[in-house]
Amino acid sequence: MPITPLHYPLAFGLSKTNKRLLLPGVVVGSVIPDIEVPLMWIFFSDLPDHLFLHSLVGAVTVGTLLAVIVTWLLYPPIISTIFRVDKDDLKEACRLSTMLVFSCLIGVLSHLLLDYPMHWFNPIWWPWVNPYDVVGPLVLLFTPFGPINGTAYWIANYLTSAIMIISWFPILIYYRNRNFWSNHWLGRPPSKQSQ
């Protein structure tokens, strides 16, 4: 899997496909499924570390709900404190709305979309299909180089991660102006009142 922050470029790109999508919602949604990984390691070490929130059922229901709550309640105070972005602008961008819910859903689904091709087990259809029976197509492509849960997986993982790292560069170029952090975390320049 690409490490969690590497899901951002896909979320950013998706948020630019439709100006009504809210970047904070898409971004938070794109990282929310990975909150289950440390929990699975600690409490359910005998199970795969990607399960419920990496399934369509979990992503669409609990994943989206968690993303909405985090975006609505936690994103504005955390981002405004760390990056000194105007808190009122963040609250406005993250206010509870149908578009926030939809943006979070798109973000959560983008996480699954990015993870699916490069995992040697995929819980996308869990609980109906065993995650070990669903191998990502990118892993299958690299099986001539080694086992699916070894070399093939690592090649797919490194390739996907490299593409996501390279994808950061156009984002940084896109936001090269003086309002970098506001643009970056709001997905738009700050309002006239806060400039």
Give a summary of the structure in a few sentences:
The protein has 195 residues and is mainly α. It has helices at residues 8-17, 23-31, 36-43, 56-83, 87-93, 98-115, 137-141, 151-174, 180-186.
Detailed description of the structure:
By secondary structure, the protein is mainly alpha-helical. It has one domain (4-194). 59% of the residues lie in helices and 0% in strands. It has 9 helices and no strands. The protein has helices at residues 8-17, 23-31, 36-43, 56-83, 87-93, 98-115, 137-141, 151-174, 180-186. The protein is globular and about 50 Å long. The mean pLDDT is 87.
Overall pLDDT confidence? 87
- Structurally, how many domains make up the residues? 1
Helix content: 55-70%
**Helical stretch tally:** 9
Encode the helix/strand succession as letters.
HHHHHHHHH
Calculate the terminal CA-CA distance, rounded to whole Å: 39 Å
- Main beta sheet, described? none
Structural Rg: 18 Å
- Strand portion: under 5%
Unreliable stretches, pLDDT < 50, 5 or more residues? none
Q: Give the overall shape.
A: globular
Secondary-structure-derived class? mainly alpha
> How many strand segments?
0
